[in-house]
Amino acid sequence: MVIIVKKDTREERIRDLIQWIESQNLRTHVSTGDYSTIIGVIGDTTKLDEDLISGLDIVEGVKRVSEPFKSANRKFHPKDSVIEVGAEHLKVGHGNFALIAGPCSVESEEQIISVARSVKAAGATMLRGGAFKPRTSPYDFQGLKADGIELLLEAKRETGLPIVTEIMNANHLPLFEDVDVIQVGARNMQNFELLKELGKTRKPILIKRGLANTIKELLMSAEYIMASGNENIILCERGVRTFETATRNTLDLSAVPVLHELTHLPVIVDPSHATGVARYVKPMAMAAAACGADGLIIEVHNDPPHALCDGAQSLRPEQFEDVAKAVRRVRAAALAED
């Protein structure tokens, strides 16, 4: 349920209404705009008398929300959410564009620091790197794990870039204490016990759409985290599995405007995993910027042919610099049109 409160209503009247709602064992989410205040009511709202609430002199209107995702719903929160990352409060969303880059897997101190310096010089705002690597084959490189996180933190100290890395198990959370953004990979998008544990943190969570999941299912996964108390969520479109074999996945760029219509959460795009081919990353990154994505996450390696993971889709630093310049031009043109 969404309750729209009239403009210029006194704060104490709004507080009284919220306290009464919460006394019914319901939760509220308040969004204050220029012209009205919106109170989102979460829980079994059948116990509330809609006519009674509508009749209050401070209430402009009441709407039932049919979608199962509530906290993530734009109806509850009409304004775009802006997620702040790191001690520098780097912003993502509502015009604040995130350019996240780095290797699929952290392999050595020399490698991750070299890549971190290169991507920062090219304009990256965050450093990505896999310490724990979920792999289809049990015989493939699984990552450096805790040592990988330490190397990422060393790269952060060298460059100042906030770090993004993937978690696979809630038991690993203590290792992520100094990580700036915790990534939930496509395979764990519906690991609900993990999502609930991440909801108890206050760290930004980057959650990737599963390779065979709908937009609604992605939003419900975000809802698991938000329902547990953490509203710092960034959504990521990374391609879905279709019958097509020319690319690793099929990048669903239509998901970007659809998600922006349905939710207030920022939406970024991963053209590397979507295509699986380095030469396709640039056009897809430009297309993502053109359709309104709030950021990109791109794989960059200093020696792709010898990468231990996903070398075929990784850009060399000079290629990433070219992509970053192209994306900036697209965004400038899009903003000029607006």
What can you tell me about this protein's structure?
It is elongated and about 70 Å long. It has helices spanning 11-22, 50-54, 109-121, 146-159, 192-198, 215-227, 255-262, 271-275, 278-290, 317-337; strands at residues 2-5, 27-32, 37-42, 59-63, 83-85, 90-92, 98-102, 126-128, 163-167, 181-184, 205-208, 233-237, 267-269, 295-299. Helix 3 (109-121) packs parallel to helix 4 and helix 3 packs parallel to helix 10. The mean pLDDT is 93. With 338 residues, the chain is of the alpha/beta class.
Summarize the entry for a quick read:
The chain has 338 residues and is of the alpha/beta class. The protein has helices spanning 11-22, 50-54, 109-121, 146-159, 192-198, 215-227, 255-262, 271-275, 278-290, 317-337, and strands at 2-5, 27-32, 37-42, 59-63, 83-85, 90-92, 98-102, 126-128, 163-167, 181-184, 205-208, 233-237, 267-269, 295-299.
Q: What does the largest sheet look like? A: 8 strands, parallel
Q: What is the CA-based Rg, rounded? A: 21 Å
Overall geometry: elongated
Whole-number mean pLDDT: 93
Range of strand content: 15-25%
Supply the helix-strand structural class: alpha/beta
Share of helix, binned: 25-40%
Strand order of the largest sheet: 13-12-11-10-9-8-7-14
Number of strands: 14
Order of helices and strands: EHEEHEEEEHEHEEHEHEHEHHEH
